[in-house]
Structures are given as structure tokens and as C-alpha cells.
Specification:
The chain has about 140 residues and is of the alpha+beta class. It has four helices and seven strands.
């Protein structure tokens, strides 16, 4: 059934054969299963209120950044942003999570922000908010 769900949400690509579509569905289902079975993720998802696809806007002096956090877990003074990637860790994943943490800081004041990027293989990438001085997160120098 998971593979059937994946097949239902994957787009039909021009020129894609039925066997290619089936392989893509199997790969998507396998990646999802490996992500979801990670013990740390299971524990986090059970530890608090889970919000999905949390929209945000960060405004700088000359531009705005729009986005959505895959999952956000709110529990006892913590706000943990979760992102899921299908490939291997890349430097821009950290920057993306730093943006998410900047948004979390404004969306949930009084909660300690933390971020995890989960991959189908290997350990998650742990990201803490940038600080301009101890205890004070700062706007990222993107604007």
C-alpha cells in the first residue's frame, strides 16, 4: 500500500515507462520507510504537538524569504524544527535549517529552538540557531 500511495502522488513524466514509474514509486516508499523508522524521529514525534508544513516569512531590509517547515514539534519549552531530505547531506541544508530556526524564534518566543535534518541513511544533521551574543539568536546575514 505504501508503494501504491507513492505511485498516486508521483507526477506522470512525459516519456516515463510503467516500469520506470514503478521503480520511482518503490524508491519513494523505501526512502519514506527508512526515514520514518529512525528511533530519534519516532521519539520526537511522540514527545509533543506536531505541526506540519508551518509557513513563515522572514523580512529583511530589502527582501523577504518565504518558506514552510516540514514538521515542528512543540513540547515543554522546546520547538524542534524537522526537515526531511531524500539524498545525502549538503551544505545548503544547514543554511536552510538556520532559516527555519530564525522563523521558529519569532513564531514561538520563549521556546528553545533546535533543528534536525533527517536523511534516509545515516545520522541526522543537528543545527542550533546562530547567536550574536550568548542566549540571543540573531537575524541571519542574508539581507
Amino acid at each position: 500500500p505504501l508503494e501504491e500511495i507513492a505511485r498516486g502522488v508521483l507526477p506522470d513524466l512525459p516519456g516515463q515507462t510503467p516500469s520506470e514509474r514503478k521503480r520511482a514509486s518503490q524508491k519513494a516508499a523505501d526512502s519514506y520507510s527508512r526515514l520514518r523508522r529512525q528511533p530519534e524521529l519516532e521519539t520526537l514525534m511522540a514527545s509533543g504537538r506536531v505541526l506540519r508544513e508551518v509557513p513563515f516569512v522572514l523580512r529583511g531590509t530589502e527582501r523577504m524569504v518565504y518558506g514552510a517547515i516540514d514538521s515542528l514539534i512543540i513540547s515543554s519549552g522546546r520547538a524542534v524544527a524537522i526537515d526531511f531530505k531524500t539524498g545525502k547531506s549538503r551544505p545548503e541544508h544547514r543554511l536552510q535549517m538556520e532559516l527555519y530556526l530564525e522563523a521558529v524564534r519569532f513564531l514561538f518566543p520563549g521556546h528553545e529552538p533546535a533543528g534536525l535534518v533527517f536523511y534516509p541513511q545515516g545520522s541526522p544533521l543537528r543545527v542550533q540557531p546562530r547567536m550574536d551574543r550568548p542566549g540571543h539568536p540573531t537575524q541571519l546575514p542574508l539581507f
